[in-house]
Design the sequence.
């Protein structure tokens, strides 16, 4: 097994175990956080949206109420099952779900108006690879929204040590400057920082 496949197996193991409790944590569905996420995405009724590492579909289902169509993709089948249950409870019909890797998105170039991810980059050994894929599948005039924990440079190492103890699939939470640098390196233009 390669390092990436070993880490992916660790993610699937962790989030299979935590799929239902994770989907039920009130903090993940907190109204202000969802409002801010959707505001950053600036969704419109005609838009095609991709939620990368969608987990139990919290953001995807919220986006589906505003967008034309939403696709959610996650590495963990148990999370996709939770997403399908959430969709069914919400009565939403404009969503589809895929199981897949954020570093090899199974979609054609320029497929989506908005590509977003929330609280996923700190699980990725190579967040740049994921960001490149997000850019690839976004339309040239599209929007990419990345939301994650961004510790200060002084607290980053301690934050990562603490998170790895709690969740072995954690890699590193990027500082805001590190996250901004990733976007700049692949030619993204920054519009909004909300922190």
Sequence:
């Amino acid at each position: 097994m390669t390092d990436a496949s070993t880490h992916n197996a660790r993610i699937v193991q962790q989030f299979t175990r935590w799929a239902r409790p994770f989907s039920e944590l009130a903090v993940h569905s907190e109204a202000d956080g969802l409002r801010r996420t959707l505001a950053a995405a600036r969704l419109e009724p005609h838009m095609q949206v991709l939620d990368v590492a969608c987990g139990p579909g919290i953001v995807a289902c919220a986006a589906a109420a505003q967008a034309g169509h939403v696709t959610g993709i996650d590495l963990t089948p148990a999370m996709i099952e939770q997403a399908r249950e959430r969709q069914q409870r919400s009565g939403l019909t404009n969503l589809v779900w895929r199981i897949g890797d954020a570093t090899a998105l199974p979609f054609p170039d320029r497929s989506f108006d908005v590509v977003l991810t929330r609280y996923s980059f700190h699980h990725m050994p190579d967040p740049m690879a994921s960001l490149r894929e997000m850019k690839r599948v976004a339309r040239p005039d599209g929007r990419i929204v990345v939301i994650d924990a961004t510790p200060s440079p002084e607290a980053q190492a301690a934050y990562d040590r603490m998170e790895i103890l709690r969740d072995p699939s954690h890699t590193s939470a990027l500082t805001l400057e590190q996250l901004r640098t990733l976007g700049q390196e692949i030619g993204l233009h920054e519009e909004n920082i909300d922190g």
Observations:
- The helical segments are 3-24, 31-41, 58-64, 77-90, 127-137, 156-166, 176-185.
- The first helix runs from residue 3 to 24.
